[in-house]
Design brief:
This protein has 1 helix and 11 strands; from the N terminus they run βββββββββαββ. It is mainly beta. A hairpin with a 5-residue loop joins strand 5 and strand 6.
Length: 127
């Protein structure tokens, strides 16, 4: 059974930084992609960033480019999201997800490409 456990969320002032971590277990992850999504109150789930462990390719939504960095350690099965210069509009529950490379490399921004999800961690940015 695949398990994804997020950590690192919290409350931060605008302009501050947070680092989210996701620990994955339960299967071989070298052939899978990892992604971060977020969901703000009253809104749908939004793609944030993704990484493919097989070749290190990364993807970002335009609103976080230059501020967020996704990185992964395939040996430890962990993926992190470094978030800098946070803005109030970044406030959301952040979810870690994993999907087969065959789907995540074709559609890294699509939630449907990911078949396992973590429970989420709250990020709140105050103005």
């Amino acid at each position: 059974q695949v398990q994804l456990v997020e950590s690192g969320g919290g409350l931060v002032q605008a302009g501050g930084s947070l680092r989210l971590s996701c620990a994955a277990s339960g299967r071989k992850f070298s052939t899978r992609g990892m992604g971060w999504f977020r969901q703000a109150p009253g809104k749908g789930r939004e793609f944030v960033a993704a990484i493919t462990w097989s070749d290190g390719s990364t993807y970002y939504v335009d609103t976080v480019k230059g501020r967020f960095t996704i990185s992964g350690d395939s040996a430890k099965n962990t993926v992190d999201l470094q978030m800098n210069n946070l803005k109030p509009e970044d406030t959301a529950v952040y979810y870690c997800a994993t999907g087969d490379n065959r789907y995540t490399r074709l559609r890294p921004t699509a939630a449907a490409a990911y078949d396992y999800w973590g429970q989420g961690t709250q990020v709140t940015v105050s103005s």
